[in-house]
Amino acid sequence: MKRILVAPLNWGLGHATRCIPVIRELQAHGFDPVIGSDGDALELLKNEFPDLEFVELPAYDIEYAKKAKYFKWKLLYDSPKILRAIAKEHKYTKKLVDYLALDGIISDNRLGVYSKKVPSVFMTHQLHVLSGNTSSISTALHQRYISKFDVCWVPDVEGEPNLSGELGHASGGFKNVRYLGPLSRLEKLNLPVKYDLLVLLSGPEPQRTMLEEKLMEELRSYVGEILMVRGKVEERQTVKTMGHNRIYNFMNSEQLEVAFSKSSLVLCRSGYTTIMDLAKLDKKAFFIPTPGQFEQEYLAQRMEEQGLVPFATQDEFKIEMLDRTTTFRGLGGFNALFDPDGIFDVFGTFQGK
User: Fold this and answer.
1) CA-to-CA distance for 80 and 349, rounded, in angstroms?
2) Is residue 279 part of a domain?
3) Hey, which of 46, 87, 93, 123 has its CA 20 to 30 A from 195?
């Protein structure tokens, strides 16, 4: 069995969760996946695949600014720390290839996890990296890192309609790009509706906590049954009831499938992995993009303009805004199928560099 390192970035939970269907396909095709990450992403995948081998990679330790206008400047300020982490993980990856006898690598946005000795795949939905007036620079830098890999996988369809828009469809400069179709770990279930609202929290701190505090206040006046998943991956799952709110610290894939299927409406961030889940499950939603994160703001604006999902900023959100969802179509109707046909051929045809 060929051993393939699957290494998602620990930036929220989306990179880890969208690797789950890839890991499942690796197993189905007779590969032996080894999972490498850090923090919550690593813990989540340990819960999903307790029988696999795991390795902890150097942490990027990404934190968001408390105010949207400082988001980009906070990332710029932290960029030396991030670059050191990328260099450290690349050095570590070189050792892991030999130590773990790896036959290939799949990196989801971990820029330093590649090797000249084995085929290395980079997975991203951002060929075009939005960063305001510095988008051309951030895209060029990202492209430079992607060029170190043998293949780039984009979890979207190549044509129209698609989910990622200009993020995943940059023109020129990219070679060996393969569109996989949207990736979701979830399956649609035919279950009776129990909850009026499913609230999904996610993303790096402090913005995850800031949104939780905001919503706990707003939801006091909501009339209906609420299921909240706080997005806090901890050693044990906890569940508590507060009035008509049922609150989990985290859920595994099977529990989330049930939660989505039993809920009429989803309130969440406009992260790309969440959008892929909503499309797969044909759900209606309301978005609150992470303040200052250009990618989420772009996706939320795009979905609203297409009449699919409304959104509001975190500061402006009021619970009565959820009524706007009645005039939007939701995310059904997309070609939301993951196409794994032939994607692992790269691990059988590699001739070295």
Assistant:
1) 36
2) yes
3) 46
